[in-house]
Design brief:
single chain, alpha/beta, D-Maltodextrin-Binding Protein, domain 2, 16 helices
Length: 345
């Protein structure tokens, strides 16, 4: 007779109840995900670069997760993708059935804005499909065709909201370099801004990724429909030829410190994350699946067909990057915050 059968029936029943939660917790990752659907929240409207990368990833990543769940994209535009970031951080299920992608600056926004309720270092970062270079462009009919024009002639640019890349970079160029920018904000995403640019509502926009230009707007480049004024990164993208690199345009130490805070974020250009607090085994499985997808021959072949750049940055690298940015001296953060906000002047 074993120990359980020697117990009083009531005691035995209570012992079994105590054991059941541990049995449930022992459910494997494969058992959990089998038959499940993962929601991939995209912080921008349909048709932009982030949307393209998310939908492409969703087609392949599920095959590398134990249990092979289906991944379905859901667009949640608003506040330059802060709406999606806040949802993923605070309201999304923390069981591994929700992941998201949002602006590369989202991780550092809490450093720059008061009132944000999330911590960029607490997300479960899965990785980024590529690093990238941010550009500032104008339509071919604009009088602003070069960086020097940008500093001397007035120009109207489109934006999304205070925390969005188009607004942040437009404000940086205005406040750090004195560019004569009028910012028309409130567009849901860069796709809507580019359409407004084609219609003549605005002359251009900043914060548009080079990868988006090459994938979504290759015809513009071929037909010379746009002027690329500057590339924002820590190193030049050779494909852009003689377009100046923003860090080469000043030798002022303070300005370079401010710029570096934003440019370092370019290294996590297309980031994907899960909410904080998901079970460690599922977090590890999602990170491993993301890494495996980046090496998937079919994923890479389709990426090439779509002209999607794959130059992955791992989740651990993003964690390290954000840890370094969150250690930036407070006086530099304060100056960067002021420079990235819309000026009343």
């Amino acid at each position: 007779m074993n120990r359980m059968t020697r117990m009083h029936p009531v005691v035995a029943a209570l012992a079994l109840v105590a054991i059941l939660p541990s049995i449930a917790r022992a459910q494997s990752v494969e058992e959990f995900y089998k038959g499940k659907t993962i929601s991939l929240i995209v912080g921008f409207s349909v048709g932009g670069g982030y949307d393209l990368y998310a939908r492409h990833l969703a087609r392949f990543m599920g095959d590398h997760i134990p249990g092979k769940p289906t991944i379905v994209t859901q667009n949640m535009a608003g506040a330059g993708s802060l709406r999606a970031a806040n949802f993923l951080y605070s309201a999304a299920p923390k069981d591994g059935t929700a992941i998201g992608t949002f602006s590369r600056t989202t991780g550092i926004n809490p450093l720059l804005e008061s009132g944000l309720t999330y911590d960029g270092t607490k997300f479960a970062w899965l990785g980024s499909v590529t690093n990238d270079v941010s550009t500032c462009v104008t339509w071919n009919t604009s009088a602003v065709k070069t960086w020097n024009d940008f500093l001397q002639k007035p120009v109207t640019l489109g934006g999304q909201g205070a925390s969005s890349e188009p607004d942040i970079f437009a404000n940086l160029y205005k406040n750090v370099f004195g560019a004569k920018i009028k910012l028309v904000s409130g567009y849901p995403g860069t796709n809507e801004i580019t359409l407004a640019m084609e219609r003549g509502e605005v002359e251009g926009l900043c914060g548009l990724s080079w990868s988006t230009l090459k994938t979504r707007h290759a015809q513009w480049l071929k037909d010379k429909k746009i002027n690329i004024l500057v590339q924002a990164a820590l190193k030049k993208e050779p494909e852009m030829g003689d377009v100046p690199l923003v860090v080469d345009l000043t030798k002022d130490t303070e300005k370079l410190q401010i710029l570096k805070l934003f440019l370092t974020a370019q290294e996590m250009a297309r980031p994907f994350a899960a909410p904080p607090g998901i079970p460690e085994d599922r977090k590890a499985a999602l990170i491993a699946a993301f890494d495996a997808t980046m090496k998937d021959s079919q994923f890479l072949a389709e990426s090439a067909k779509l002209n999607i750049e794959v130059n992955p940055v791992g989740g651990k690298a993003i964690d390290k990057l954000l840890a370094e940015l969150y250690a930036t001296p407070k006086d530099v953060i304060q100056k960067a915050s002021q420079a990235s906000q819309t000026s009343t002047k």
